[in-house]
Amino acid sequence: MKVIETPLQFLPRLSELMGREIWIKRDDLNGDILTAGNKKRKLAYLLADAKQRGADTILTTGGPNSNHARATAAASIQMGFTPVLVLAGRAPDARRGNYLLNSLMGVEMKFSGARTQEEMEAALADFADQLAQQGKRPYVIGVGGSNGLGSLGYLDAYEEMRRQAEQAGIRFDWLFAAAGSGGTLAGLIYGRDLARDQTRIVGISPWLKEEKIRQQIDRCLAELDRLAERKRTEQTGLGYQVSDAYLGKGYGVPTESGMEALRLLAQTEAILLDHVYTAKAMAGCLDFIRRGTVKPGEKVLFWHTGGAPGLFVLE
Ligand SMILES: Cc1ncc(COP(=O)(O)O)c(C=O)c1O
């Protein structure tokens, strides 16, 4: 699966309004597999591994409206695997958002009733065992495709962005992105450390509490230390920040600040965020600017990780 280069764009109207230079990395346009978003970069590595191991069936999990699950199903179809989604909770009443897209692709979906990440992973492992007993060769991709292998896709992405930034003659002081299961942020942090850039990276959590998301990011970073061809050293690392302050009532529940951010970007730049991940991440980015944590003259990169199909569950 070929990963296409996504645009790095300046946001002129939003920048003027906010009084800071704001750019966006358009991984929402990474879409030659059914509106893929950030997942495609991880899946390129994960599905290549599945192929090498001789798998025939790809299993993954997520919420009923999961972007990751839909993107995994779509990429699996394109690579000749059979996708099976073992989703949390129960089947939604209406076919909307990613649930609709999975149905149109004819993807087998099981609803496990799981509510926590641990329950989701357990249901996934159970179902993989059942398939193996039936003679299938399942390959299991955990929540969000976040492990060291998947994160390699975001190490590449950081390098891609850096080349584009160099061409545009810009260096970023800040990078904001949604941090759901952590693999995206881990790859970006690793890429930044390898490049020895001074960009501060902030992950905004739309799901997990700060301590838990940190654990996941650190686990991916440790795996990257083993897997990456070039290794970073501790001295090169600036570290990173995470914040769960923009999460609101919980995963998938829209927040006032997120919806304000979503409308603002739609109205100033005609770029669509999603209410689950990227709107909350943008709310965090705007809040850092408004509070003056991002100082005048500092340059900001917002990493758009996609997710707009999930928007179509909103009333
Ligand atoms: C649109 C969108 N943005 C961000 C993320 C978070 O990425 P990660 O799980 O790598 O932290 C997801 C994950 O599902 C997503 O769908």
Give a short synopsis of this structure.
The chain has 315 residues and is of the alpha/beta class.
What does this structure look like?
With 315 residues, this protein is an alpha/beta fold. The chain folds into two domains: 8-36 and 147-313, Rossmann fold; 39-144, Rossmann fold (3-Layer(aba) Sandwich). The chain is built from ten helices and ten strands. The strands form two sheets. The chain has a six-stranded mixed sheet with strand order 1-2-10-7-8-9, with helices on both faces. A four-stranded parallel sheet has the order 5-4-3-6, with helices on both faces. Helix 2 (39-52) packs across helix 3 (67-78), helix 3 runs parallel beside helix 4 (97-104) and helix 9 (256-269) crosses helix 10. It is globular. The two termini are 35 Å apart. Pyridoxal-5'-phosphate binds at residues 37-38, 67-68, 144, 146, 178-185, 274, 277-278, 305-307.
Please trace the helix and strand order, writing H or E for each element. Answer: EHEHEHEHEHEHEHEHEHHE
Largest sheet: 6 strands, mixed
Bound molecules: pyridoxal-5'-phosphate
Spatial gap, N to C terminus: 35 Å
Total domain units: 2
Would you report the number of β strands? 10
